[in-house]
Each structure stands twice: as structure tokens, then as C-alpha cells.
């Protein structure tokens, strides 16, 4: 059965509009608490960690969740503003029943969301989410007073996570002599990321570190990296690091101001690992640039594509038993370092690669050139069955045969609008544009 509330990254929407309302979120806390309590039947009282980003709505939703969990007899630990991957780490490190993040990631401040981590620091299995949705359909009740949950603040949650991040950087290396600009997107990492890089020896210049509840992701961070590029050049820095609002995405900038996306950073990390040992394989998504597929084939490294979304990248990595994967948007996974995508930890893996090689970002990625992409959005009527359009499928096949191993075609519907997205990658930008338009003209 299709999920009613849970999407690929928890429950997300505009604050004040169902389901991101205080009454629903309290019921969600109660339902999740009842599911967790049942799973821990006969064991100690379940305890859940709640973390959040810097959105003004976080206060309201945190209080609602806390009340719901307490009514279900679940204790709560409050971490305050911390990155999403910090909740995953702390939940696992403290042997808690689950972790909850209040964040809408890279979305603007008026959105918010709720996502869960299991006791192992992974996204909740679909079956558990289904159990929570089923519990949401039942009336909300309350355990007897003597069994109500209690809440307490987790002391030094930020400091604990800072030490964890640093532990993923080799002990034999440091960042002394480097000047790094860190853009925290006025988000959850504003009081964490600068300390991580500074304590490893870098001179840190921080931007996007003055959250006011309304400015998260606004013209800054991984979704708007031009601000970082400008700051790196203005400060004559060696590198720039851009995170998003909940710090699970990473983009980087070199001394010239050039921006490196997640595809390029994944390639760099795989290349670095290959220099010190075998790499079993790497995972991208349907949107990962074809240049990576070609490069990994030359390197003898198996490559798989998952559906768009870091959740699906993680699923394929776990299925294959591989360690490295990511998306062009900056979600990068290093499963021997963390159970989930982590912008700070990923930046440290890139920095350690640069230190080990003695090369710059440009030098380490000089042997890969991303294929130009052309994207055409075609509006379609509601319910239109584009897959049954014989002319469209024939044109797609003709373009694919024409491109051969010099490009690829991807057709996919938008998840939020009545659109078909026609994407063509080719070694030549003009060729990509003309081929994409050819296919787009056959959609209707």
C-alpha cells in the first residue's frame, strides 16, 4: 500500500498546512512512540533523540513531538540545532530507540519536515513507517501518569558530534596552512562545521552562520554556491565548503572560485580510495553525469544507478556491500565513516584526499570532464500516459542509437508538477540540446 504521509525523506511540507501542523505532529509523536514501545516490549523504556535545524517553526514542532512521545510513555532527549547526520550518529552512539530530525533540508524556511532514524542510525525501514501510519489512524490516547515519558536536554550534543566528525579524518594528517571558507547556509551546522575544520588546523572564514529562523538556505549554502565562490576569491582562500540547511549536502569551491558538484566529488573520493586499495563499486542515481560511468568503467570499477534520492543510493550500496555513492546535488555517502550522507564528513574525506595526493581539486579531477546536459520540461495533461506514446518511444530509441556510448537519454515525470522532463547528455552541448528538443517535440 502506498504511504499516505511518508515520502522518500520523511514527512515534509509547508508549515501550517496539513500535515505540518502542531496537532498532526503531536499525533505523529504519539503514533511513533506506540510503535517503538511495542518493539521494545518487556525492555527498558524507549528513549528518542530529537534534533532540529534553525527554522523558526522548529520550536513549535519540537514541543508537539515531545508531547506526543510523552503521552505514549517514551522518554525524549533534546539535542537542539544539530545537522541531520548528527542525529543519526548520536542515536547510534547513545544506544537510543530512534532519532527524529525536524528539518526540511534545502527547502526555504516556511517549509519543515519530520524524518526518523532507527537505533542503528539508518533511515527507518518501510515496514516501520507503515506501522506508524497505521497507528496514526487510531485515536490518540495517553498512558497513565506514572508511565508518562520525560524530557531532558542532551548536554553538549554539538561537541560530541564535532569530535565524531574529526575522528573520520586521518590522525596523521592536519589542515594547517589552509584557509577555508565554510558556508553553513544559516542552518544546523552554523555552530559546528567551523569548529571541526578549525580544530583540525585550518584558518576558517565562516559565512551563512547567523541564523534568525527565517534565512536558512536563503541565497547561500549548497543550493546557492555563488556566495561561497565570491567569498573564496575575495578572501584569497584555498578552498570553500558549502553545506545545506541540515548539513547533509556538500559542494566545494577551489581557489579560482570554480564550483565542484557532488558527481565530481564522488569521482575524487573513489579515485583517492583506488590509490590505496581496491574499490568494489560506486553508486550514483539516474541523474548522475555519464562522465562518471565512463570514467569508472575505464578504472575497472563497477557502477550502478539508483533512483533519485540518497535513500535509494543507500539501499543499493547496502545491497551490493559497497561503500561509496552519491548524487550531483551533493549527497555523498561513505559507509565506512557514517551510516548516512554527511556534508562535513564528506568534506573531510575530500580534504584528506587532497592532503594525501598533494594536489588541488582541479588537478585531482582534471581527468574527468562532465558531459553537457540539456533539460527540456514539457507540460502534459493530468493523467497523460506518456509511456504508451509510440512516436515518443521511437524517437527516444533513435536518439539513443545515434548517441551510442557518447551520451544518454533520460525521460522521467516530475514528482510535483504535470511535467515530463527530457534530459539528454552528450559530449557536445549543441548536440545535447538538439537531441533533447527532438524528443521533447514527440511528447504530445
Topology:
Blueprint: E1 11-14, H1 22-39, E2 47-52, H2 57-71, E3 75-81, H3 84-93, E4 98-102, E5 111-118, H4 126-136, E6 151-153, H5 157-167, E7 179-183, H6 193-199, E8 203-207, H7 226-234, E9 239-243, E10 250-254, E11 259-260, H8 262-276, E12 282-285, H9 290-299, E13 303-306, H10 310-320, E14 324-326, E15 332-334, H11 343-357, H12 361-364, E16 373-379, H13 390-403, E17 407-413, E18 419-426, H14 429-440
Parallel strand pairs: 2-3, 2-4, 3-6, 7-8, 7-9, 12-13, 12-14
Antiparallel strand pairs: 1-5, 4-5, 9-10, 10-11, 14-15, 16-18, 17-18
Helix pairs in contact: 1-2, 1-4, 5-6, 8-11, 13-14
Helix vs. strand class: alpha/beta
What is the CATH first-level class name of the largest domain? Alpha Beta
Amount of beta strand? 15-25%
**Residue share in helix:** 25-40%
Q: Would you identify the regions where 5 or more consecutive residues have pLDDT less than 50?
A: none
Shape type:
globular
Main pleated sheet: 6 strands, mixed
Strands across the major sheet, in which order? 1-5-4-2-3-6
How many structural domains? 4
Radius of gyration: 23 Å
CATH T-level fold name of the largest domain: Alpha-D-Glucose-1,6-Bisphosphate, Chain A, domain 3
Under CATH, the homologous superfamily of the largest domain reads: Alpha-D-Glucose-1,6-Bisphosphate, subunit A, domain 3
The number of distinct helices, counting runs of at least 4 residues, comes to 14
Terminal Cα span: 31 Å
The total of beta strands comes to 18
Please provide a written account of the structure.
With 444 residues, this protein is an alpha/beta fold. The protein has four domains: 11-155, Alpha-D-Glucose-1,6-Bisphosphate, Chain A, domain 3; 160-258, Alpha-D-Glucose-1,6-Bisphosphate, Chain A, domain 3 (3-Layer(aba) Sandwich); 260-364, Alpha-D-Glucose-1,6-Bisphosphate, subunit A, domain 3 (Alpha-D-Glucose-1,6-Bisphosphate, Chain A, domain 3, 3-Layer(aba) Sandwich); 373-440, Alpha-D-phosphohexomutase, C-terminal domain (TATA-Binding Protein), CATH 3.30.310.50. The chain contains 14 helices and 18 strands. It has helices at residues 22-39, 57-71, 84-93, 126-136, 157-167, 193-199, 226-234, 262-276, 290-299, 310-320, 343-357, 361-364, 390-403, 429-440; strands at 11-14, 47-52, 75-81, 98-102, 111-118, 151-153, 179-183, 203-207, 239-243, 250-254, 259-260, 282-285, 303-306, 324-326, 332-334, 373-379, 407-413, 419-426. The protein has a six-stranded mixed β-sheet, sandwiched between helices. The chain has a five-stranded mixed β-sheet with strand order 8-7-9-10-11, sandwiched between helices. Strand 12, helix 9 and strand 13 (303-306) form a beta-alpha-beta unit. Helix 1 (22-39) packs across helix 4 (126-136), helix 8 packs across helix 11 and helix 13 packs antiparallel against helix 14. The longest helix has 18 residues, at 22-39. The chain is globular, with a radius of gyration of 23 Å. It starts with 10 loop residues before the first strand and ends with a helix. The model has no long low-confidence stretch (mean pLDDT 95).
Amino acid at each position: 500500500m502506498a504511504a499516505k504521509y511518508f515520502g522518500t525523506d520523511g514527512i515534509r511540507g509547508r508549515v501550517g498546512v496539513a500535515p505540518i501542523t502542531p496537532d498532526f505532529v503531536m499525533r505523529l509523536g504519539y503514533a511513533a512512540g506506540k510503535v517503538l514501545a511495542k518493539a521494545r516490549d518487556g525492555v527498558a523504556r524507549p528513549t528518542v533523540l530529537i534534533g532540529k535545524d534553525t527554522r523558526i517553526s522548529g520550536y513549535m514542532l519540537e514541543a508537539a513531538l515531545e508531547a506526543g512521545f510523552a503521552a505514549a510513555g517514551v522518554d525524549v532527549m533534546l539535542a537542539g540545532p544539530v545537522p541531520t547526520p548528527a542525529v543519526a550518529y548520536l542515536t547510534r552512539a547513545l544506544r537510543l530507540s530512534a532519532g527524529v530530525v525536524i528539518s526540511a533540508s534545502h527547502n526555504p524556511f516556511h517549509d519543515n519536515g519530520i524524518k526518523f532514524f532507527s537505533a542503528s542510525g539508518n533511515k527507518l525501514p518501510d515496514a516501520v513507517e507503515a506501522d506508524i501510519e497505521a497507528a496514526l489512524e487510531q485515536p490518540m490516547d495517553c498512558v497513565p501518569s506514572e508511565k508518562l515519558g520525560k524530557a531532558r536536554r542532551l548536554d553538549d550534543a554539538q561537541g560530541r558530534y564535532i569530535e565524531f566528525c574529526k575522528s573520520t579524518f586521518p590522525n596523521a594528517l592536519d589542515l594547517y596552512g589552509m584557509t577555508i571558507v565554510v558556508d553553513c547556509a544559516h542552518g544546523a551546522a552554523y555552530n559546528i562545521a567551523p569548529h571541526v575544520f578549525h580544530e583540525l588546523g585550518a584558518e576558517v572564514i565562516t559565512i551563512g552562520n547567523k541564523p534568525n529562523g527565517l534565512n536558512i538556505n536563503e541565497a547561500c549554502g549548497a543550493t546557492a554556491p555563488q556566495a561561497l565562490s565570491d567569498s573564496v576569491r575575495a578572501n584569497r582562500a584555498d578552498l570553500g565548503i558549502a553545506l545545506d540547511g541540515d548539513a547533509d549536502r556538500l559542494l566545494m569551491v577551489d581557489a579560482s572560485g570554480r564550483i565542484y558538484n557532488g558527481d565530481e566529488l564522488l569521482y575524487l573520493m573513489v579515485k583517492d580510495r583506488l590509490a590505496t586499495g581496491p574499490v568494489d563499486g560506486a553508486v550514483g542515481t539516474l541523474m548522475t553525469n555519464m562522465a562518471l560511468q565512463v570514467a569508472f568503467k575505464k578504472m575497472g570499477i563497477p557502477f550502478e544507478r539508483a533512483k533519485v534520492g540518497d535513500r535509494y543510493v543507500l539501499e543499493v550500496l547496502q545491497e551490493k556491500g559497497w561503500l561509496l555513492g552519491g548524487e550531483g546535488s551533493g549527497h555523498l555517502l561513505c559507509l565506512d565513516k557514517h551510516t548516512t550522507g554527511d556534508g562535513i564528513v564528506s568534506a573531510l574525506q575530500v580534504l584528506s584526499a587532497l592532503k594525501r595526493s598533494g594536489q588541488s581539486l582541479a588537478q585531482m579531477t582534471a581527468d574527468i570532464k562532465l558531459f553537457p546536459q540539456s533539460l527540456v520540461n514539457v507540460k502534459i495533461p493530468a493523467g497523460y500516459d506518456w509511456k504508451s506514446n509510440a512516436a515518443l518511444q521511437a524517437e527516444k530509441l533513435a536518439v539513443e542509437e545515434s548517441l551510442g556510448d557518447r551520451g544518454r537519454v533520460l525521460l522521467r515525470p516530475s514528482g510535483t508538477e504535470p511535467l515530463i522532463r527530457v534530459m539528454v547528455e552528450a559530449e557536445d552541448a549543441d548536440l545535447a540540446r538538439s537531441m533533447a528538443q527532438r524528443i521533447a517535440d514527440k511528447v504530445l
